[in-house]
Amino acid sequence: MSRVPQAPLFVREMGLPARFAVYVLVCLFLLALDARYIALGGVRAGVNALLHPLQLALAWPLEWMRGVGAFFVAHGDLVVENERLRRERDRIALAALDRVALAAENERLRELHQLPAWPGVTPLLGEIVATVPDPFARRVVINRGHVQGVRAGWPVVDAAGLVGQVTRVYPWSAEVTLITDRDQGAPVQNLRNGLRIIVSGMGSDNLLMVRFLDMHADLAEGDWLYTSGIDGVYPAGIPVARVVKTEPPRASPFASAYCAPIGGVGRYRHVAVLKPVAETPAATEAAPAAAGGRR
Amino acid sequence: MIPESPLLPQGAELRKPPTRTRVYLSLALALAFTLLPWDHDWRWLLPDFTLLLLLYWNIHAPRQAGLGAAFVLGLVTDVAQGLLLGLNALAYCAATFAVLLVRRRLANFSPLLQTPQIAPVLVGKEALVLALGMMIGRGEADWRWLAAGLLGAALWWPLSWAMERLGAHAAPPAPERRA
Fold it and tell me: Cβ separation of B17 and A33 shorter than 8 Å?
């Protein structure tokens, strides 16, 4: 019975409204500190490092049940899938042969024109372990973090196309802001005619938008948009979106277009973080010099 | 003058206050449940179990779970979910304050009758999070998230029933005083 806490006879503490006011002030202070400055990054990373193993442990039974479910897949399904994967592998192998030749040719042509080589990337495979429950943003958490070498700013792709960008790195996990996030944009190029535009997210899982499009720009339904690589963040040539609809200018002097993302944004589990091989600053410094030389 | 029967209900009617361990353990379990990797497609519908249990303990054991517990739980939620630090903490504190103000009144109602009185608090918390996000300038809010508050209110009665059944603050074996 001694463990049952007793209500004190005389209450010696601030009144409820006063205590509430203190907590509100502290919360607002923290909010302002976190929203305007990056002072709390260390605190966040520290607490997250403690919480992350716990979250993994909590998710483990669910993973286990999923694994058990996958064990009882019918034999026929496996045969069909195996066959499909074989065909897919052959197709990719053929495409890769082609690609090696093309890359070599590209390299030669670049040397001929004295252009800097594109900064190469190495993929760092990871898995989406959670989505961030935020009504304002589209973010996911992957199971690769600072320890595995992930840094903020690196692009994230999946088998189909661009998925997003690493925006916050914890010791063993990282937050990826999807390209469908409202504040996220990607510089792209129209595959058909090389038109350079910027697509940005709308906060919807299956729509991207070109907000400011020149009235006379040649962008049509069905066009494929690939990253142009001019921002130094996304390497060139990653599929991003396909144009679904273009809208003529009405209220503003700009036209706009809606696109469907190609990457499995919000669908797939496996992604790859693209780790730049060459340091990006060097590459971006080299580019203007070469451009200046040509002028 | 000694009355035949006591004026105030005694014995079995008086409840043993819940222990600190029970309160904190159940709050930690609720927090863990909230932090499970829920599917993104219907994440907006998921009620805030941490807040539900926090409010439950605010009504039944205000000395164990108060503004301090709300603040700490809110901060942990913020970090775990990667939101702005202090967002959920502020919302939890506000909800706790609202419930503590009317605690004595609420405690007199059955869980079923408490539901319509808890619902505004739960929906208000979701609205506060959305409104704060808009004030900080994070764009348009996804107002579907308000539904989580309503679903939470619907879960209030089962939760109260379950907590009582689990003996969270069960009555001690009634000492038969007078027949």
Answer: no
DSSP string, A239-294: EEEEEEEEE--SSSSSEEEEEEESS-TTT-SEEEEEEESS-HHHHHHHHHHHHHHH
| Residue A30 in domain | yes
Q: Which two tokens stand for residue A205?
A: 């899982």
Span A161-213, pLDDT tens digits? 888 999 888 888 899 999 888 888 899 998 888 889 999 988 777 889 888 88
Domain of A55 in residue numbering reads as 14-66
pLDDT tens by residue, A142-156: 888 888 889 888 999
Residues of A in contact with B145 (CB under 8 A): 135
Q: Is B20 an 8 Å CB contact of chain A?
A: yes
Would you say residue A4 lies in a domain?
A: no
Q: CB B36 to CB A62 under 8 A? A: yes
**Residue written as token pair 């990282």:** A174
Q: In terms of domains, do A55 and A27 share one? A: yes
What type of residue sits at position B54?
L
- Dig out the tokens for B109 from the structure: 């109602």
CB atoms within 10 A of CB A290: 12
The tokens for A179 are 């390209």
